[in-house]
């Protein structure tokens, strides 16, 4: 999430609109399916703001990180497909887009047609923990050259488990390419993160208070753990960690 993206009224309105649409369609039974309402709202919100995210990420290391992905790639949580235009198509053999929210599929499909990746990018509606579904797509232990993870671990249910699955699926020498955010190292900022987190996690859909770096490094053995970068952002609620880790052979 970009540092200029804050909880505001449009986000509340999108969630309210998704709720009222679900109730009109399914009646009060819709209230028993909050995750479906949240998924629809999140997809609409992030599709609307996709251009802003792309513009912000263009000012960061994200474009060069995406271009480091090659071979058979798994993209975790592509959302509306903000990274699709950044792939170096000369290096891409195939991309598996693992996206548990089905409401993003139309936005992704439109970008695949635009950037000539239709035959090399497939959206799979599941989580990385759904091993049976992945196996049917040929995604098995040690089968991936790279996993791309841009602003995803803040939003998954269990980042520790996700990272253990990532490590298993990578080939020895495979790359985990990431740009994430988590706990600040500044104590005053961590207090602010803790105060913001309840509302932020409901309406934006991610967590400000995770030790994402530990979850990544503790998932398995990496050849270059000291190369992870943590830019100095002492007063940011979204301090970044980034890098290209290589799975130890």
UniProtKB/TrEMBL annotation:
Gene3D superfamilies: Vaccinia Virus protein VP39. One of its GO terms (molecular function) is S-adenosylmethionine-dependent methyltransferase activity. SUPFAM superfamilies: S-adenosyl-L-methionine-dependent methyltransferases. InterPro entries: Methyltransf_11, SAM-dependent_MTases_sf, Thiol_S-MT. PANTHER family: METHYLTRANSFERASE LIKE 7A, METHYLTRANSFERASE LIKE 7B. Residues 74-178 form the Methyltransferase type domain. It comes from Penicillium roqueforti (strain FM164). This is Genomic scaffold, ProqFM164S01. Pfam families: Methyltransf_11.
